[in-house]
Design a protein that fits this description.
The chain is α/β, with parallel strands linked by helices. Helices cover 27% and strands 24% of the residues.
Length: 197
């Protein structure tokens, strides 16, 4: 697959890597998610983060639920995204019971203005269908994360994926927001974007 990546279009690549992820058994996805969560909790960047943007896992996305519970227990400020039309915003939550099923069947926070989270230097865990080792990311084709973080350059973006979703190089565009770190079952790796930041 590596040799043909530059010759494949974005839709094909997104489909290929999503199938790689979705073809795993639920047991394997769960096992790898636990390994990833263990790596995150040992990670210095996470340990030093007081404000964290999370996502709620859908289907076989990497589940960060153990990390989320750890962050809540430690009294950190955490927030989840909520989609409204073409936009996405984050709202702070103090308990996962506050989340309800929203757009695309994703669990979302209530949209109370007083809990709007706009943290300029937060750590953000980002899902996706495919990533590369330079920080490139393919989401699900709607651009929510790219738009939200386009003007938030001080946020620390950490792409979360299984190794089967990570390749050497994706054909990204200038509007694709790159990750500062990639986190998989092998641990957290600094990307080229973070080195040059």
């Amino acid at each position: 697959m590596e040799t043909s990546i530059q010759n494949s279009n974005r839709k094909q690549l997104r489909s290929y890597f999503k199938n790689q992820r979705d073809s795993m058994t639920s047991a394997l996805a769960g096992q790898l998610s636990v390994q990833i969560c263990d790596k995150i909790q040992e990670w210095e960047v996470y340990q030093n983060a007081g404000e964290i943007y999370f996502y709620y896992p859908l289907e076989k996305e990497v589940s960060l639920l153990p990390v989320i519970y750890d962050a809540l227990a430690a009294g950190r400020h955490i927030a989840f995204p909520k989609v409204s039309g073409n936009d996405m915003v984050f709202y702070e939550v103090t308990n996962l019971d506050e989340l309800t099923e929203g757009c695309f069947h994703v669990m979302e926070p209530p949209s109370e203005e007083r809990f709007l989270a706009d943290w300029p230097s937060a750590l953000c865990f980002v899902p996706g269908t495919a990533f590369d080792r330079e920080g490139g990311r393919f989401g699900y084709g709607r651009g929510y994360y790219d738009r939200y973080f386009s003007g938030r350059n001080d946020c620390i973006l950490a792409g979360c994926a299984y190794e089967c979703q990570i390749t050497d190089k994706l054909p990204t565009e200038e509007w694709d927001r790159r990750m500062d770190y990639m986190i998989s079952e092998k641990g957290a790796v600094t990307t080229l974007r973070s080195i040059l930041k």
